[in-house]
Fold this sequence. Notes:
Elements: E1 8-12, H1 22-36, E2 40-46, E3 59-64, H2 77-93, E4 99-102, H3 106-118, E5 123-127, H4 131-137, H5 142-157, E6 161-164, H6 167-175, E7 183-185, E8 212-216, H7 226-235, E9 243-247, H8 253-260, E10 268-271, H9 276-284, E11 288-293, H10 305-311, E12 317-321, H11 324-331, E13 335-338, H12 342-354, H13 360-373, H14 376-389
Amino acid sequence: MPPRTPTRVAIASRVYAPEPAAAAFRLRAAASALARRGADVTVLTSRTSAAGLAGERGVRVRRWPVLRAKDGTVRGYLPYASFDAPLLGRLLLGRRNDTVLVEPPPTTGTVARLALTIRRTPYVYYAADLVSAAAEGAGFPAPVVALTRALEAFAVRRAAAVVTVNDDLRRHVERLGAAPSRVHVVGNGVDTGVFTLDGPVRDVAPGRSGPLFVYPGTMNDLHGAEVFVEGFRRALPDLPGATLVMVGRGSEVERVAAAGATLEPGSFVGLDAMPGTDVAAIVRGATAALASVRPGGGYTIALATKAVAAAATGTPVVFAGEGPTVDVVTEGGLGHAVPWDADAVADALRTVARGSDGDAGRRAERAAWVQANASLDAVGERVAEIVLAARR
């Protein structure tokens, strides 16, 4: 018998590793899992200047130049269009695939549905978040929310399967018109090969002798990361020598930096986005890692993965906000979950700086819980199984 032809799978996403974004790394985990199962995987993504290795055995990454927003992300109308328009041609004229895994935004899902319907190729939509829900919560004009919801519905209704990360998102997807039998909850995970208990520690506040608090990740209006600047300001008189470090990009970076500049000299450090290994080295040396979700901002149905990634290094977490992250932090003993309020944040910073959260035993327990319950490898395997099952 002739050898069996490997299943051809494409992944269509505006971001992919090594870009420092949760979507980039969950897709790399899915690609690696697909390759381990013998699939021939091609990733159609954007060109990036991010440093670090992204290649995996059996995975080809094809990058296309795109417009990027001021903060360096592929986010906003023109950046989306600069990726989606060429993607239409790449899917229509490129190699024929057995199935395609498609990452939001819904404009990419719409383009993928159009191209793949013509080519009669099934696709799986990875609804780890819903842009329409976020837009509504952020107070976007009603016509924008309606258009976004229509595009999202268009993308999910014809998908052979929809992958999502929790039951709240599953219900949203079903309300958009996806058949319940085609919606799969796979959970959310972090890269426990990068965010590890043991590893190098990077000192980003030389000369400072007090506790170190690190916010590692995107700072958009949905996150409300500025609450940590104000909370830190209120806690600082009780924590001499303390330092607040904000690492990442996003639409709120300038506002956060401006607020940080008003703090005690030397107590605030702002760093650009960087590879996960470097972020992990900074977080490992922190007294606590910080994560937030602004209430009512449309993001409360999603997990703040930066909180779980930080906990994988053993570092305790201070989470401010609402949503499933509260349950994860509480159930996993990952740290402190408080309301999105500067006074509540200040109290949590004082507590974690003075308590036993950073003891070696507690750190090991925290890291072990993440490894057992929120590993990105396990999520990638579940996604790969669904993608391969979608073949005709």
